[in-house]
Amino acid sequence: MTAPPSVGGSERIRLFLGLxxxxxxxxxxxxxxxxxxxxxxxxxxxxxxxxxxxxxxRPAADLPVVLxxxxxxxxxxxxxxxxxxxxxxxxxxVAMLVCDDEGGRAAALAADLQxxxxxxxVYRREGRPWLPHLTVGRFREPPGLDPNLANMGTYVLxxxxxxxxxxxLRPSGAEYEVLASVALGAQV
Length: 188
What we know:
Order of helices and strands: EHEEHEEHEEE
Number of domains: 1
Strand order of the largest sheet: 3-1-7-8
């Protein structure tokens, strides 16, 4: 696991945990975005991830507990999670690629992590089931796109690791910083 930066205990930070993608997967997604998502603000390459749990604003003092939950869940996860983009979806402000989770392994990791975070008192699950997806763009008004996924072929996204992200809201959009990363199946 990479070491987290030091942050003050009384400071509040905006956190989420997610699966990072390796360069080859990012290349495929980025090429697809530039062909199909011209009518929105495309999510930059460094922001592409699959969210496992969004914690929101938390006291910085919670970070060690959050990282321990991430370390334990990711360490016990299947080494190779396989996610295939199967459809495009728009919400009121986000464009996403919804993925098929081969064998439910990513969902199992998300459930384990969320349970650990809940037991630690730093998270409360959403009422809806976890949806494996990759946010690929943002907009003010849904453009109503129906882009083709065929040029992605049967590309499978295989996450490189699980990470804790610091999210800073800016007028130009959110900025993400990886605070720590854990190899999947690391068994620490």
